[in-house]
Amino acid sequence: MRCAAAVLLLMALLTACGGGSDSGNGGGTSPPPAAQRGDLIDKPPQKVASYSPAQLLTLLGGSDLGKTFLQLAYTPRCNVTVYHLTYDTIDPTGTLTPASGALMVPSGTDAACAGARPLVLYAHGTNTDRSFDIAQLDPSLNAEGVLLAAVFAAEGYIVIAPNYLGYDTSTLAYHPFLVASAESGDMTDALTAARSALPTADAPAATDDGKLFITGYSEGGYVAMATHAALEAAGAHVTAAAPMSGPYAPEAFGDAIFEGEVSDSAVPNLTLLIGAYQHVYGDLYGDPANAFAPPYVSATSLLPGSTSVADLTSQGKLPGALFDSTPPAPAYQPYTPATVPATLASVFAAGFGGDFLILNSYRGAYLADALKSPDGGFPAVTDGLPAAAPAQPLRVHLKANDLRSFVPAAPTLLCGGSSDPTVFFFNTQLMQHYWEGHPPATAPVVVDVDSAVTAGDPYATLKTGFGAAKALVALDGGDAAVLAAYHATLVPPFCLSAVKSFFDAH
Hints:
Elements: H1 2-16, E1 46-51, H2 53-60, H3 64-69, E2 79-90, E3 96-107, E4 115-123, H4 143-151, E5 158-162, H5 180-197, E6 206-217, H6 219-233, E7 240-244, H7 250-258, H8 266-281, H9 309-314, E8 323-324, H10 345-349, E9 352-353, H11 360-372, H12 393-400, E10 413-416, H13 426-437, E11 445-448, H14 460-504
Parallel strand pairs: 4-5, 4-6, 6-7, 8-9, 10-11
Antiparallel strand pairs: 1-2, 2-3, 3-5
């Protein structure tokens, strides 16, 4: 009996020490599971800062964007705690890679600031600063993040806002600009990671109520719609979505630019786009010298980077114009530059010069393909669809990333301004046109903040406010100042206000 007892005691001791397990790693504990996309890297996320309503108002007053927003009647209700969210996602090759963003959580005594709260998944606009981190609420460097915190988090929404691959702590050497699968995948993985981080220690009363809203501005408008499409295709529930001022129809937009309607910021945007598509698809050119003018063959390696576009231009590393003022062939003279609509003619003209980014040979090949296989949305709206059979590689990939095949199941609002010189409003109109022929279950709402007020217009106050804000800018600098402020400063506050009201109603 004593022998049997001794054997039992020995077995108990071995089991307590782990000696009785066989895990394939020398008898120790099981290894941790392999990292998966959507996993948190920093557990819990690092707290960046907390802001009271008064502090948020001060931050808003530190930028032109915030000052425009403060022209609207606004009183924040909640404290906001901002976290730096780090998580695993995949790059366009399918390789696991780190990414980061912001998690903004409300708290406070107001009933809207605690308990089960809705989520807003937000996609930011184009940024060329490689170190950009939307969790750092500095109005001089990140006015968009400040506005996001004020409009949504300080009103009781939990906000998730990725920085995108290629920024902040991301190790990817480029940003997959307007690559729908990559950018929507990053957003989806940020959402998964953020949900696993809730509730947080500093705001334990704020929890996920199951509602998911998606929005974003400019590039982020495109990313928001691509994310909405990806989530619904995967069977996920989206409560409502509201993309703003996005290039949803990139093939039509690309055709407009190459056909002489050169948008404001076209040089950095095309540099990002061509660099991204060359990395992802590998066939835009065999040698960058086949696409870029000689001084700028390394342009795609500069963005995103640590030097501003203004400084790169002053240093002679980026040109001021996109195209040569001499057309590729006499037949293309009417496109060099375009002169209609007249309100944007000065913007188009600025895209041409003697110091330019894109070679005439590359532009000519694109134009030849666009004229042979035209987009159904530009220059004239026919069927409103991308070209049936584009052959020029850039056009092929623009079509592949075009969103004119998505029909949302969730209620959707689109917002923008019809005189936008940076992302032309016809992108919004082409989505509206597509949905008229392929009606969603709930009719989408389209808001042009720069349109005339009509009888019974639910957005009359916003449109009137936008007109007043535009007039105020014109007093200081005329039409040129309005165009310069239009996309980055004037439209976002009014569209965000429309989006907030739309989400509140759902």
